[in-house]
Amino acid sequence: MKNIAILVLAAGKSSRMNSIKQLEKINHKTLLELTLEKIQRVYNSTLFCVLGANSDKIKSETKTKNIQFIENTNFENGLSSSIVAGIKYFKKKNYHFDGIFILLADQPAIEISYLEDMLHLFEQNKDIIIASNYGQKLGVPAIFPKKYLSDLLLIKGDKGAKEFINKKKNEVLFSTIPTDFLDIDTKEELQRYKNSILK
Prior knowledge:
seven-stranded mixed β-sheet; about 35% helix
């Protein structure tokens, strides 16, 4: 297995949920724990998780082991700021990785087989971005090779990583395994997801 940093982004203040989204429970696990534990089944190493809003409460209620939390004090500046916070943290700690696998904490329906396939693609193409295909656009989850990390420090806003990937379309591969990219932002979406897994 390549030397990859798994970076889970969970710093948002989930304003549309009117609660701490990362701590919403599904089958006795929080949304954040579900994401962390899913990726741990694929990649058995320390995971990095970027927190911002409500970080102390989230830390205290996250029971998943082998997680290194990274504080993003600029979380109000959108998702890009969490990616930047992660890369700066790795630089400060002098950690060297072949790539960074970026996942969102609010996409619980993505299958393990899909994540495995992304890692497999990166194993075979370690200089190419491995992204997710949303049809019209490419986005995260995505694995960025180390050669792009200094460029990623310049991204801004909530769509920074997506714009970065789509500008480099001809340097991107994506898994063709179908998966569910459901992104949970509201109570209704959360309830729909809960209903779908109880069927």
